[in-house]
Amino acid sequence: MQALRGVTVVGSFNVDHVWTAPSLPRRGETLVGAYRSGPGGKGFNQAVAAARAGAATSFVCALGDDVGGQLARMLAAADGIDLRDQVSNAPTGTAGIFVSEDGANSIVIGPGANGSLTPAFVDAQRDLLAASAVVLVQLESPIDSVLHALQLARAAGAITMLNPAPANIVAASELLACADILTPNETEFASLMQAHAGMTIAADEIVATGDETLHGHCRRLFPHGSVVLTLGAAGCFVSHAAQLRGDERAHYRVTGEAVQPVDTTGAGDAFNGALAASLAQAPQRVFAEHIRFANRYAAMSTESPGAALAMPRQIQVLARFGD
């Protein structure tokens, strides 16, 4: 049997249009700021992060036959990413991003071609998915296509990771059932708890919630797998089911790293891509070591502007923080 290797990301690509201003605009307010454009989309951000974190990486997506699609193909090639794109009649996806001076952001997405990714095209990549050590998905692509990718990956023995983002789209129970690792942020976790556990939790109170209570919430939401709850600058919280993935404890926190954030756009994607890459490259390591690397990788990504292009290289992270 062929050894499983590398990371496959199934997801979205967007051309990001980014405006930076002293604060985020309020309703009816006009601000003067600076503009830039570059590649993004949760799927592509995560694929670039996985590749720059050292893993052989493939990216399955849908692109328009336009300048945005050409940009995606060029950038994927530059980072050595094996791009499998379904060509769509719709324009390549776009995102409008507003960033404040303290690094906070608000985003509006135009899905475009991302909405064209079909289960049939995903099915055509079944050999790729079967040969992957880790398959990572998000919720900016059609849910039936994302679900099919997870089903194929799980049947082949890959580690399946579900990043249930963005928060306004709540992952279906079928998606949760097919995932081995769930990686929500506070807002996404609160939405999932409401939808699947019938519990109302304030997202801004999660970071201060006691570990035992938070572990109980995770087990109620996701009883069969591991939850990695990202907490921004506070780091992350890990909750395991019966399989501890080499860890000594069923739950624990990893504190955030001290950095000087410039732009937090894509930090969650950096974490997910780096975690997938670490799991694929060093499966013998305990899970806490993978989390520590992903946490450091995501922290460094906030020190540069942009999303995909802000992802650091593995050698930079190791030079900064060590192994």
End-to-end separation: 31 Å
Largest sheet: 9 strands, mixed
Tell the overall outline. globular
**Tally of DSSP helical segments:** 11
Report low-confidence residues grouped into runs of 5 or more. none
The CATH C-level name is: Alpha Beta
> Do you know the CATH topology?
UDP-N-acetylmuramoyl-L-alanine:D-glutamate ligase
Q: Could you explain how this protein is built, in words?
A:
This protein has 323 residues and is of the alpha/beta class. It has one domain (7-321): UDP-N-acetylmuramoyl-L-alanine:D-glutamate ligase. 35% of the residues lie in helices and 22% in strands. The protein is built from 11 helices and 13 strands. The chain has helices at residues 42-52, 67-78, 119-123, 126-130, 143-156, 173-178, 186-196, 211-221, 267-281, 287-301, 314-321, and strands at residues 7-10, 14-21, 34-40, 57-64, 82-88, 93-100, 105-110, 134-137, 159-162, 181-182, 226-230, 236-239, 251-254. It has a 9-stranded mixed beta sheet with strand order 5-4-1-8-9-10-11-12-13, with helices on both faces. The chain has a 4-stranded mixed beta sheet with strand order 3-2-6-7. Helix 5 links the parallel strand 8 and strand 9. The mean pLDDT is 94.
